[in-house]
Amino acid sequence: MQDGPESDSEHSELVTIRKPRKGIYVLPNLFTLAALFGGFYAIVMAMNGRFDQAAVGVFCAMILDSLDGRVARMTNTQSAFGEQMDSLSDMVSFGAAPALIAYEWSLRGLGRWGWIAAFVYCACAALRLARFNVNTSVVDKRYFQGLPSPAAAALVMGFLWLMVELDPQIKGADVAWPMFAFTLFSGLTMVTNVPFYSFKDMHMKKSVPFAVIVMIALGIAVINIHPPTVLFGLFVIYGLSGYVVYAWRKTKGLQTSVISTSTDEPDERGLH
């Protein structure tokens, strides 16, 4: 008879135990929000006619976007919320912002062709990000499946930034067709299956030879010579590198797909 009250009290104590609520990690999401601000800032600058600052805003968003994932992994603060937040931020900073800025600066003069090119870029950025989220577990981590959206944005904004730096009085209408070509190339390359090296196998915690640090210092010095020219040139090389790798693998009879595991799942079969 005495066991009843004790068991009831123990039961009540167990009932009152609650699981800790899952919070949102502040540090990596601060970088993501800062990247989102860079894209928003770029759109505002374009609306005010400051297209050089708009391009700089997108490049700043690129740097911040490259840091949030690394910070999350280094601090062990990865979360599903952070992944979704990162995708939404990328859509604004590297999807909508470059398309709107390119249209406002140059593509407007082409009439319907201009807004079609801008929309194709924006739509391809959304499709590329959606495919990336779905295929994360089956793609070879060493490569991206298609041109990553930050690199695509860098091609479009790099061209704009370079033109404005070379001639501050230039009008976007003067280079409307080259901008049209860069916008379409960047957009469509995002949704191809062409492999682009991801640099994800480079570990920051591993020791490196002294020569590597020297090369990094030289690289920073070269970029500072004329950032628009150097950065645009680097991203043009990167944007073509995937096609070079694809062609080389094709000629050697090697597998060109970056899908590294089984694709038996029906929801993912059509994405490959």
State the gist of this model.
With 272 residues, the chain is mainly alpha-helical. The chain has helices spanning 3-16, 26-47, 51-74, 80-105, 112-135, 149-166, 176-190, 210-225, 227-252, 266-269, and strands at residues 143-145, 195-197.
Query: Whole-number average pLDDT?
Result: 84
Order of helices and strands: HHHHHEHHEHHH
What's the total helix number?
10
- Uncertain ranges: 12-17, 261-272
Structure description:
This protein has 272 residues and is mostly helical. The chain has one domain: Up-down Bundle (Four Helix Bundle (Hemerythrin (Met), subunit A)), CATH 1.20.120.1760. Helices cover 69% and strands 2% of the residues. The chain has helices at 3-16, 26-47, 51-74, 80-105, 112-135, 149-166, 176-190, 210-225, 227-252, 266-269; strands at 143-145, 195-197. The longest helix has 26 residues, at 80-105. It is globular and about 50 Å long.
List the main descriptive attributes of the protein structure presented here.
272 residues, mainly alpha, Four Helix Bundle (Hemerythrin (Met), subunit A), two-stranded antiparallel ribbon, 2 strands, 2% strand, disordered C terminus
Topology:
Blueprint: H1 3-16, H2 26-47, H3 51-74, H4 80-105, H5 112-135, E1 143-145, H6 149-166, H7 176-190, E2 195-197, H8 210-225, H9 227-252, H10 266-269
Antiparallel strand pairs: 1-2
Helix pairs in contact: 2-3, 2-4, 3-4, 3-6, 4-5, 4-6, 5-7, 6-7, 6-9, 8-9
